[in-house]
Specification:
Layout: H1 3-16, H2 18-24, E1 41-46, H3 52-61, E2 65-71, H4 75-84, E3 89-91, H5 94-99, E4 105-108, H6 115-124, E5 128-131, H7 139-151, E6 156-158, H8 166-176, E7 183-191, H9 208-224, E8 229-235, E9 240-243, E10 247-250, E11 256-262, E12 268-274, E13 291-297, E14 300-307, E15 310-318, E16 325-327, H10 339-349, H11 358-377, E17 381-382
Parallel strand pairs: 1-2, 1-4, 2-3, 4-5, 5-6, 7-12
Antiparallel strand pairs: 7-13, 8-11, 8-17, 9-10, 11-12, 13-14, 14-15, 15-16
Helix pairs in contact: 6-7, 7-11, 8-9, 9-11
The chain binds nicotinamide-adenine-dinucleotide.
Nicotinamide-adenine-dinucleotide binds at residues 46-51, 71-74, 77, 94, 109-112, 114, 118, 132-133, 197-198, 211.
């Protein structure tokens, strides 16, 4: 390791984690009593498709990570990314990856339907796990994974990390300070014309909720508290699509969803997502400047500028200060794809800098499953899961 290079990159990377790090450094918190030892965490990444192009540069810049192996069931993808990102080992199957070059941290970037069983296999092999969303396909399965991780004395985390942004922290602080008065309602939406590269987004276990609404559901429950019950209407607007990996496919999961959440104390929110939303900016979050999330109360209004996964600021108007004012326009290093790098920092330093918790991710999984049940039955579905709230920003 080049110490000079390491010092510079560590300082630069530190900028991205100041928010959480300064407030939440709680000292050594090893897993099952083990003391953390500062080191680069030997890491294996499974799934070398689209999102790996965002994760791998971030991981390669992170001073707490050493990516030692890649894996993809399309072996040419693992080989290509290994060459591009200078990673020594690549494998065509998880069995070969787990039996190959030793590592301790497993990052799962595969199809949504594959996460649950691959996460289980990695946990059983004693690996810490970071999973793209969802961690599992049902609350019960996710809770089993969490119990397994505790038995194995390893950590389990899942995307998204929307609660990590400066803008989320700003909004949470306004709410905690009562700036909006009696909070009543919130709305959030996220949509585009749908991914055109892989069929899994539209097949059982896919859909616009686990792919898109998951961000808004995490933000709104993070800001307003765990939901107590859910009502929803879902539909399929485009029943057939052409996608890169399978050509013509039937769309069986929702590509249009409206979900209502009851947060208790009269607070109701609404999350809208879909794969049939014309969007002049396509998948490019940096160009979105409208409010995609808003919260209103008796004394104020707050609107998040841009997407919650790539926020650009927060607009606030209150009775005391009714002229809309924009705050937190600087991301200060936050990027949506840094969750696994932050998890590696936790493993290396023992500092609990990650605000995203598996319990919160599983609460959102339960909301998504409940929305499906509500839409199918026309009933309001009570929820059983919760997470530690408020999120301490
Ligand atoms: N594409 C994005 O910009 C983006 C952004 C945020 C989150 N995500 C999430 O990331 C995940 C992957 O999305 P993507 O767009 O990269 O999909 P993708 O289809 O481009 O890539 C998925 C890769 O996983 C591989 N794979 C599938 N099953 C596997 C298995 N059992 N073992 C090993 N490899 C396997 C596939 O061969 C493919 O190369 C999804 O959960 C998605 O919701 C994607």
């Amino acid at each position: 390791m080049n110490p000079t290079k390491n010092r510079i990159s560590r300082r630069e990377f530190g900028k991205t984690t100041l928010l959480a790090g300064a407030a939440l450094a709680t000292g050594a918190t090893g897993v099952c009593g083990a003391e953390p030892s500062p080191r680069r965490i030997r890491t294996g990444v499974i799934g070398c498709g689209s999102v790996s192009n965002s994760y791998l540069p971030n991981l390669n810049q992170c001073p707490y990570v050493e990516v030692v192996s890649l894996c993809d069931i399309k072996p040419e993808r693992a080989k290509r990314q290994a060459e591009r990102f200078k990673i020594a080992h690549h494998y065509p199957h998880i069995d070969a990856m787990l039996a190959g070059e030793p590592f301790e941290f497993f990052i799962n970037l595969t199809d949504m339907q594959q996460h649950e069983h691959l996460n289980r296999q990695a946990l059983e092999a004693g690996k810490h796990v970071w999973s793209e969303k969802p961690i599992a396909n049902s609350l019960a399965a996710g809770q089993e994974l969490l119990a397994l991780s505790r038995r194995k004395c390893v950590r389990l985390w899942g995307a998204p990390i929307v609660v990590q942004s400066r803008q989320f922290a700003f909004m949470a602080r306004q709410l905690a300070a009562g700036k909006l008065g009696r909070v009543a309602a919130a709305h959030a939406d996220y949509g585009h014309e749908g991914p055109d590269w892989s069929a899994f987004f539209y097949e059982k276990g896919g859909g616009s909720m686990p792919d898109l609404a998951v961000y808004n559901l995490t933000s709104l429950t993070g800001l307003l508290g765990p939901a107590r019950s859910v009502m929803a209407m879902l539909s399929v607007v485009t029943p057939e699509r052409t996608v890169g990996d399978k050509d013509r496919i039937q769309v069986t999961e929702e590509d249009n969803s409206m979900v209502l959440l009851d947060h208790g104390n009269g607070v109701i929110s609404h999350v809208q997502s879909g794969f049939n939303y014309f969007n002049p900016h396509g998948h490019d979050g940096s160009q979105e400047t409208r409010h995609t999330l808003s919260i209103v109360g008796s004394d104020g209004f707050m609107g998040l500028v841009g997407y919650d996964w790539a926020p650009l600021g927060v607009d606030l108007a209150t009775k005391d200060s009714p002229k809309m004012r924009r705050d937190e326009t600087d991301a200060r290093g936050y990027v949506w794809q840094q969750g696994a790098s932050l998890a590696a920092e936790v493993l290396s330093t023992g500092k609990e800098i990650l605000l995203a918790t598996p319990e919160h991710a599983l609460h959102v999984v339960e909301i998504i499953c409940a929305a499906r049940e509500s839409s199918a039955t026309g009933r309001r579905i009570p929820l059983t899961s919760t997470f530690k709230w408020p999120v301490v920003v």
